[in-house]
Every structure is written in structure tokens, then in C-alpha cells.
Amino acid sequence: MDDQKDRFGDKIRDLEKAREDQWAREQDLALIEKMRARQRGLQCPRCAAGLVAQSRGGAAVMACPNGHGGWLEADALERLGEPAK
Ligand SMILES: [Zn+2]
Predict the structure, then answer these.
(1) CA of 9 to the centre of ligand 1 (A)
(2) Looking at residue 16, what DSSP letter applies?
(3) Any idea where the domains of the chain sit in the sequence?
(4) Residue 64 neighbours by CB distance under 10 Å
(5) 73, 76, 77, 70: which is closest to 45 by C-alpha?
(6) Are strands 70-72 and 52-56 parallel, antiparallel or unpaired?
(7) Could you report the per-residue pLDDT of 51-77, keeping only the tens digit for each?
(8) Where are the beta strands (DSSP E) in the chain?
(9) Tens-digit pLDDT profile for residues 35-51
(10) What distance in angstroms lies between residue 62's CA and the mean position of ligand 1's atoms?
(11) CB 34: neighbour CB atoms within 10 A?
């Protein structure tokens, strides 16, 4: 009986985890959509390729598809920390 209860608890935890993952994915997609709408037409300053919206660690990033770097919005940049002085 206790064993069954534990398994039920595990199932609930799995379900909660799945819901959190789903929520995180939706947040990522929303961020990416927002970024795409605002930054349409941004180009890589090195190779002029159109930047591609990606989600990195919960922040939307417009990145060069050829790996030259990316564009972070101010709020995402702030989350990385204070500028060095
Ligand atoms: Zn580039």
C-alpha cells in the first residue's frame, strides 16, 4: 500500500515536472516571438547574415547562424550582471 502511494506520488511529481517543462518551452517560444517581431531584419555585423532568434538560458538572443555572435536585449544583458568598471 505504501509502495503504491509512493508510485502515485512519483507520477504526480512527473506530471508537475512535465507541466513546468511545457511552461518553460512556452515562455521560450513567447520570448523568441517577441524578439523576432522587434528585431526583424537584424544582420550580423561580420558576415551580414540575417540573425536568427534563439532561446538561451531563458533569454531571447538573436544570433548569427554562422556563429559570429549575437544580440541581447538590455533586460537579458542586465541579467548577466553589472558591466565591468
Ligand atoms: Zn555572422
Answers:
(1) 49
(2) H
(3) 2-80
(4) 20
(5) 70
(6) unpaired
(7) 988 887 778 888 999 999 998 888 888
(8) 52-56, 59-63, 70-72
(9) 776 767 889 999 999 99
(10) 11
(11) 13
